Every structure is written in C-alpha cells, then in structure tokens.
Known about the structure:
Layout: E1 6-16, E2 20-25, E3 28-41, E4 47-49, E5 54-59, E6 64-75, E7 80-90, H1 95-100, E8 108-117, E9 131-138, E10 143-151
Antiparallel strand pairs: 1-3, 1-10, 2-3, 3-4, 3-5, 4-6, 5-6, 6-7, 7-8, 8-9, 9-10
Amino acid sequence: MFDYSLEHLFSYVVSVEKPQMIGPLPEGIRAIFYVTKGEITGPKLRGRILPGGGDWFTVRTDGVGIVDGRVTYESDDGALIYVAYNGVADFGEDGYQNFLRREFPASLKHRVAPRFHTSHPKYLWLNRLQCLGIGAGDLQRSEISSDFYAVR
C-alpha cells in the first residue's frame, strides 16, 4: 500500500443554466450544463468561476452519470486558471429513465479528478497536482458545490 494524504485546496459553489438535453443517444442522454457564475474560497485559492465553461454530462442507461467539465477560474489577484475534470455521479438504477423525464434528484453526489493549467507564476504549482473533487449538485436549484483536494 502506498502512503498518501489529501490537502484541502479550496471549495466552490457554481450556478449553472438549465441543461440542454440531447437524446436519447446510443450512449445515453447528453446534458450540457453551462456555468453562469461561481465563487471559490479556501486556504490555497480564492476567486471566481467565469461564465462560459460547463459540464458536457452523459447519463448512461445504467444510471451512471459521466462528468466531463471544463471551466476557467479567475483568482482574486487576476490569474486565469483552466480546469478540466472527469468523474462520475450515480443516479441509481432508475436514474436514466428519471433523467429522461427531467426528474432530477434534490442532491446528486459526484467524484471528479480535476487537473489545472495556468501560466501565472504564482500558481504554477497547480500544474503539478493530481486532485480529487468531492461534491454534490442540486439540479433543482441549478447549483453545484465541491471541495477540491491535492493528492500528496
């Protein structure tokens, strides 16, 4: 077994538009959630999530949601940081049919693996990290929150 630890970097809350739903497709239902605004708070990073990014989400027929997100952060001191993340959210065995009927759960847990990309000298350390994001989405309120941790 390998030794590791998790270091909390920051938390965020983001608002998204109602999803653009495409499907059903052979691979499931594609739901695109575009970001309208977001706030980042934490010990290692503070700032906002810029509008325009989003999650190109797929709900498979088995009820598993595949997360495929890309957003841009702007730190309080003006650095731009691109973030790409992939992961899963489990809607349950009847999740596909519920999602198809636009019956969204009040809370949906997700687990993601974010990677950061920046050229700002103060935040180059982010480029070296593998991270873990643990959070939940309230699809009825169109709000998603997460805690991001560096795997050390």
